[in-house]
DNA sequence: AAAAAAT
């Protein structure tokens, strides 16, 4: 479901709307990159110790006050506004935005039709195909098309006998489909001094350029098409490690290019080595089942991810890296029609991206055999190995036919990796190399982090003020001249809440307030989830209200602001959430609403802020100190708790960062909950403009979980 | 107590 603003109910104050974190300093030759925490120091000094800030005229903006050009773009192009809400259950609206299939037989049917018409289309159809492309994602409905690289028929023996390291012929259409998305210009040149730790026997030297290691013709071509110029820090280290067939546990900050760090070398290896035994296994399978009948697929590589949308995203990325190769990537995940996914698998599957539950299902149905899976990747590995997922991972990796560790190559990636999970992870690794780019679990300094004290009852009105200061209502977003100057400058805001119910009600509220918004959480149908993400990505709905489902891994360009309407209860979740902004060298802003309920995260949050060189509100420092003395023992297998074992302490080594956590303990006597936490110049600056609309009282009667 | 992940 998506909400598009009915009208511009909130006037736009140009001065406040100037949040433009992806600012002019980016990409301007000859001008030095200045990280957000170092910019506009003069203004910062004026801030009260309470931090957040003085109000509307100089908050949020990090020194960039240039006004935005407020041009009309006829924003209502989205169809009948009155029907905007009809999509919640049904299938209203949205035609013309990729949902142009009139067949109402379920959303999976759309894939079929899209694919059929797609594949049936000759190049004559190209012009219309190109021209109706808004910004990026052509979307999932063509997946399984030619995108995997062109070998739609593994049964074509003449092709299988070919050298997998040689590229297949190019296709202008596929190329355009895969690579016409937003430019992922990576500004990691500035990060050469980032501390890197690579431990383990015989760790190969890192590379400085993609040309420093032989990844073959296909990969190099696709790197060029993807407009990757230099490897990011994690790629510099992970690529040679993976190329030398080593197991790997890799930790690198959000948005630092982890996906390509494993896809490039893994696919490079597959291209070099060819299908091997898997080919014969598939031929046998085909003979048993009839040439065009059911075939069990034996992927050479498996990538596991914790959410469906992340799996889809990795799959899309894999299609790029596999372009012009013999490797056909597939993706399977729950919530979508399994028959459709099976048919896609049967067209050939050499690299499989999956969520665990659906993969187990596929294995039990005999559609997937992991017997020849030589490459296993756990993305968001700490999540995949925590309590919710660990049994399923063991089921897939240890209790089936996958080659044991030592025979297969196992790689794990995450931005966070609590020590206990690292230990658990060793079960799946052999002679592995531990790689930490930056400190494990730390946040990018490209993200300006703000923590502001907001009582539960004030959250909604505060959010509105925040949005008014940082979001341009849909109707006045420009799409013309300025966009040409700064491509893709849409400003997206991602609002995290703790519960599914909370997501529904907050989206509803924002909709009633006139904002173009949508929401995503695990109780939505898969179709709605993907639709919401698409509406957000495309900028159609520049506000997305989300639960933890969107916290990890999703790479959405133009997310300028992440708002923790509710703070999460553990610091890893916080790190991943705010990591939806400030990606690949861009700047971002993260604002977190903090109150009495968030005591459990106080200490870790403080550590994170200090580590990322962010301003720390003095009240937070005080609370952390109090909390440290108050709570002592709490248990939990996958959590770190209590004082002294904070966020920074689960690096594998204990070097560096001695103390320094509490910059100024003297401040503790400000009294914790005392008056020092003001957020609007002089207590309640952001008044309760909206508190009398009948919803505040209602809200205060429900408990913390909305029950 | 919540979210996620198969049906």
UniProtKB/TrEMBL annotation:
<dbReference type="InterPro" id="IPR014001">
    <property type="entry name" value="Helicase_ATP-bd"/>
</dbReference>
<dbReference type="InterPro" id="IPR001650">
    <property type="entry name" value="Helicase_C-like"/>
</dbReference>
<feature type="compositionally biased region" description="Gly residues">
    <location>
        <begin position="657"/>
        <end position="678"/>
    </location>
</feature>
<feature type="region of interest" description="Disordered">
    <location>
        <begin position="30"/>
        <end position="89"/>
    </location>
</feature>
<feature type="compositionally biased region" description="Gly residues">
    <location>
        <begin position="73"/>
        <end position="82"/>
    </location>
</feature>
<feature type="compositionally biased region" description="Low complexity">
    <location>
        <begin position="127"/>
        <end position="138"/>
    </location>
</feature>
<feature type="compositionally biased region" description="Basic residues">
    <location>
        <begin position="630"/>
        <end position="640"/>
    </location>
</feature>
<dbReference type="GO" id="GO:0003724">
    <property type="term" value="F:RNA helicase activity"/>
</dbReference>
<feature type="domain" description="Helicase C-terminal">
    <location>
        <begin position="446"/>
        <end position="624"/>
    </location>
</feature>
<dbReference type="GO" id="GO:0003723">
    <property type="term" value="F:RNA binding"/>
</dbReference>
<keyword id="KW-0378">Hydrolase</keyword>
<keyword id="KW-0067">ATP-binding</keyword>
<feature type="domain" description="Helicase ATP-binding">
    <location>
        <begin position="239"/>
        <end position="435"/>
    </location>
</feature>
<dbReference type="InterPro" id="IPR000629">
    <property type="entry name" value="RNA-helicase_DEAD-box_CS"/>
</dbReference>
<keyword id="KW-0694">RNA-binding</keyword>
<protein>
    <recommendedName>
        <fullName>RNA helicase</fullName>
        <ecNumber>3.6.4.13</ecNumber>
    </recommendedName>
</protein>
<keyword id="KW-0347">Helicase</keyword>
<feature type="region of interest" description="Disordered">
    <location>
        <begin position="630"/>
        <end position="678"/>
    </location>
</feature>
<dbReference type="Pfam" id="PF00270">
    <property type="entry name" value="DEAD"/>
</dbReference>
<feature type="compositionally biased region" description="Basic and acidic residues">
    <location>
        <begin position="154"/>
        <end position="165"/>
    </location>
</feature>
<feature type="region of interest" description="Disordered">
    <location>
        <begin position="114"/>
        <end position="173"/>
    </location>
</feature>
<dbReference type="GO" id="GO:0005524">
    <property type="term" value="F:ATP binding"/>
</dbReference>
<comment type="similarity">
    <text>Belongs to the DEAD box helicase family. DDX3/DED1 subfamily.</text>
</comment>
<dbReference type="GO" id="GO:0016787">
    <property type="term" value="F:hydrolase activity"/>
</dbReference>
<dbReference type="InterPro" id="IPR014014">
    <property type="entry name" value="RNA_helicase_DEAD_Q_motif"/>
</dbReference>
<feature type="domain" description="DEAD-box RNA helicase Q">
    <location>
        <begin position="208"/>
        <end position="236"/>
    </location>
</feature>
<keyword id="KW-0547">Nucleotide-binding</keyword>
<feature type="short sequence motif" description="Q motif">
    <location>
        <begin position="208"/>
        <end position="236"/>
    </location>
</feature>
<dbReference type="Pfam" id="PF00271">
    <property type="entry name" value="Helicase_C"/>
</dbReference>
<dbReference type="InterPro" id="IPR027417">
    <property type="entry name" value="P-loop_NTPase"/>
</dbReference>
<dbReference type="InterPro" id="IPR011545">
    <property type="entry name" value="DEAD/DEAH_box_helicase_dom"/>
</dbReference>
